[in-house]
Structure formats: C-alpha cells, structure tokens
Design a protein that fits this description.
Blueprint: H1 34-42, H2 50-70, H3 78-84, H4 94-106
Helix pairs in contact: 1-2
C-alpha cells in the first residue's frame, strides 16, 4: 500500500463484506462489521501502539460494529445515529448527496 493514500472498497463477498452467513466474529462472538474488519487490517499500519489500537477498537470501532450489525435500537451509538440522520433520500439529486456526505465526513 502507498504510504500517503489508500482507497478501500468492497464489492459483495469481498474481504470487508460482513453480510455473509460465515461473517467473521470477534473472540466474544460479536460479528465484525466492515468498519471493524477494515480497522483490524489497517490499524497496525498506523503509528499507534498496540494499547492505542486496542483503546480505539474498544471505545469506537466495536460500538459502531454493534450498531451496524444489530441496529441502533438494540445498540445505539451516538456517532452512527448522528451520521444516519444526515442520510439523504434515495431520490435526492447527486449534488445534495455530495453535500450531505461531506457534512458527515466533517463529523
């Protein structure tokens, strides 16, 4: 991977597709979501200690994975809920979708 840029995308049944019968689980049995799988693979490339990687995983990544896999009613996550409120309707124009996406990115 290039040290300066990295683009990761996943098409169905790829490395980060967690919507499979054989989806990977954490040691405690909770399923990984795409974010957790991506974090697991890319975090070691960051200039972070194992302790820092584990801390971010425990307070942020696992929580987003739970919300993604089991829904915000069962596992509410403030960041996930806030970003989902920024989603546009499927029939809104492309420019508005770009604006809303960039708004979400800034959060």
């Amino acid at each position: 991977m290039d040290d300066e840029t990295c683009l990761v995308y996943d098409i169905g049944h790829g490395t980060y597709d967690h919507h499979q019968k054989n989806a990977e689980c954490r040691p405690n049995g909770d399923k990984y979501a795409s974010f957790g799988l991506l974090w697991r693979d890319l975090a070691p490339l960051l200039d972070l200690s194992e302790e820092e990687i584990s801390y971010v995983d425990n307070i942020l990544v696992k929580e987003i994975d739970l919300t993604d896999n089991y829904g915000s009613q069962k596992y509410p996550n403030l960041l996930s809920c806030q970003i989902s409120k920024m989603n546009v309707n499927w029939n809104e124009d492309d420019e508005w979708q770009k604006v809303k996406f960039l708004d979400a990115v800034t959060i």
